[in-house]
Design a protein that fits this description.
Blueprint lengths: L2 H12 L7 E2 L7 H8 L6 E9 L2 E8 L6 H8 L4 E3 L2 H8 L14 E5 L8 E4 L5 E5 L1 H8 L2 E3 L10
Parallel strand pairs: 2-6, 3-5, 5-8
Antiparallel strand pairs: 1-7, 2-3, 2-4, 6-7
Length: 159
Amino acid sequence: MHPNAVRVQEALVAAGSSAGVREVPDSTRTSAEAAAAIGVEVGQIAKSLVFLVDGEPVVCVLSGVDRLDTEKLRALRGGARVERADADAVRAATGFPIGGVSPIGHDALVVVDRALGRHEVIWAAAGTPHAVFPTSFGELVAVSRAQVADVRVGGPGDR
């Protein structure tokens, strides 16, 4: 297993999870690719996006069908400026490459969008563009020590 995937597996075990990291031959770099590789709906993919709020990294985890509302993130964090992290900032904050950012296995602040909880089983990246792990909303929040918030475009009642 790739060292990044091993790091995620170790973080899962340390957090008390029984979830197992799975490496797949097809790319899981995007939500659509991940869903196709695993055989699930795009909405079940927990995509991890890294943004900088006043220069501080925040890993935002949303359903693969949702988009981040940067104004909601700015307000949540009480910041003045929100910008998407570039590849170097993503790796510096998480140790993972874009397309493989896991919501666990690093010390960056994690915010999980509450709407992701509408799925019984969700799949998150495990450190590489070819590694994922299954989990539940509650477990994801617990193992990532995340703040739960409404940070997607739209909101309650729009579906």
